[in-house]
From TrEMBL:
Keywords attached to this entry: Acyltransferase, Ligase, Pyridoxal phosphate, Transferase
Homology family: Belongs to the class-II pyridoxal-phosphate-dependent aminotransferase family.
PROSITE patterns: AA_TRANSFER_CLASS_2
Protein's UniProt keywords contain Iron-sulfur: no
PANTHER family in alphabetical order: 2-AMINO-3-KETOBUTYRATE COENZYME A LIGASE, MITOCHONDRIAL, CLASS II AMINOTRANSFERASE/8-AMINO-7-OXONONANOATE SYNTHASE
Species: Zootermopsis nevadensis
The name this protein goes by in its record: 2-amino-3-ketobutyrate coenzyme A ligase, mitochondrial
SUPFAM superfamilies: PLP-dependent transferases
Length: 418
């Protein structure tokens, strides 16, 4: 029966199994490139999780759960019972999805509710939702900036920012990472630009370092520029009440445009947004291509976003727990002799340098019940491979102690520490 079905499939779908010269050439080229990746030790394997996201997960065929230290689930909300209940309730009431884009028949009252909640949380005039923060970054620069404008981007900004800026026709400047002198020099070169837009990550995801937003805003005022910040690794958990890098620097309201995500701390599902001046948001609804040509976010995802913001707005306990866990882990790892990049943020990159070493180190950690991932080129620069540890509010002190002990054991075995 199965053989008969496969035979019918082959005859019904022209070209499905064809092996033309072009296809063979494609395969040869791709195989050569894949071989280069493997030879360089930068091959990225995907571990399959067979459980809910959380501080404990089941990976692959392992019988026992392992401690998860490589998730963006900063507040531990991905499997929070209130989040799950909100998604289930929305699924029952609103269905699985809208089967459409927002301006046709893809906007529900809960979409508007979440946009208002986001704007209120960030203390901005309005907000617009996208399928992801990558889409939010892909939309804004092309819409906002023209050949009469100039954009100034930190050299280590997220790939989505880099791709988004490529789409616009503004004059493009890349300043050295966190270097305010270099940024100002570029600003001075664009005295006649109509709009000047400084673009930065709030927190840089590979290194865990924090943009000097206070200094950036001062330079913006001095040179008549706007400030844009991507807060994907800050919203909901960074700063005293989780309002991100602005709050960390005590300058809430000084950044002009904020992009962020619902897919990390705020429920861990999907979705991104832009929040800022009402007129800008109105323009993005009219011209933002990822908004106009992508299905609206599914109701269960919207519901998880609403509930996540409610949780953060109603209590500061999870934010405090993340801060406690971060300090505990960082201090213990530095005391053990490891080089930990960044500072004061739940992203804790354990710097190893060699690509193969990072991969082997991660495998050794998994064998000891700690799930971490080795980061290597092109995700990070060559010879700057690392294990990026991320702390969550769901981690206990015991979890952190177990992870540190495993790091020390593997570190000594692989001669990373003495």
């Amino acid at each position: 029966m199965a053989a008969t079905f496969r035979s019918k499939v082959r005859s019904c779908i022209p070209g499905l199994y064809r092996q033309t010269h072009s296809i063979r050439l494609l395969k040869e080229i791709v195989k050569e490139e894949l071989g280069t990746i493997k030879d360089a030790g930068t091959w990225k394997s995907e571990h399959v999780i067979t459980s809910r996201q959380g501080s404990l997960v089941t990976v692959g065929k392992q019988k026992h759960k392992v401690l998860n230290f490589c998730s963006n689930n900063y507040l531990g909300l991905s499997s929070h019972p209130d989040i799950i209940n909100a998604a289930q309730t929305a699924l029952e009431k609103y269905g699985a999805g809208l089967s459409s884009v927002r301006f046709i028949c893809g906007t529900q009252n809960i979409h508007k509710e979440l946009e208002h909640k986001i704007a209120d949380f960030h203390q901005r005039e309005n907000a617009i939702l996208y399928p992801s923060c990558f889409d939010a970054n892909a939309a804004i620069f092309e819409v906002l900036l023209t050949p009469r404008d100039a954009v100034f981007s930190d050299e280590l900004n997220h790939a989505s920012i880099i791709d988004g800026i490529r789409l616009c026709k503004a004059r493009k400047h890349r300043y050295q990472h966190l270097d305010m002198s270099d940024l100002e020099q570029h600003l001075k070169e664009e005295k006649n630009a109509r709009l000047k837009l400084i673009v930065t990550d709030g927190v840089f995801s590979m290194d865990g370092d924090i943009a000097p937003l206070d200094m950036i805003c001062k330079l913006a005022d001095k040179h008549g520029a706007l400030v844009f910040v991507d807060e994907a690794h800050a919203t909901g958990f960074f700063g005293k009440t989780g309002r991100g890098t602005e709050e960390y620097h005590n300058i809430i309201g000084q950044v002009d445009i904020i992009n962020s995500t619902l897919g990390k701390a705020m429920g861990g599902a999907s979705g991104g947004y832009t929040t800022g001046p009402k007129e800008l948001i109105d323009l993005l609804r009219q011209r933002g291509r990822p908004y106009l040509f992508s299905n609206s976010l599914p109701p269960p995802v919207i519901a998880t976003g609403i509930k996540a913001f409610d949780i953060v707005l109603n209590s500061n306990d999870l934010v405090k727990r993340v801060r406690h866990n971060t300090k505990r882990f960082r201090n213990a790892m530095i005391e053990a002799g490891f080089t930990v990049a960044g500072g004061g943020h739940p992203i804790c990159p354990i710097m190893l340098g060699q690509e193969r070493l990072a991969s082997i180190f991660a495998d050794e950690m998994l064998a000891r019940g700690i799930y971490v991932v080795g980061f290597s080129y092109p995700v990070v620069p060559k010879n700057k491979a690392r294990i990026r540890v991320q702390l969550s509010a769901s981690h206990s002190d015991e979890d952190i102690n177990k992870a540190v002990n495993a790091f020390v054991e593997v570190g000594k075995k692989l001669n990373v520490i003495s």
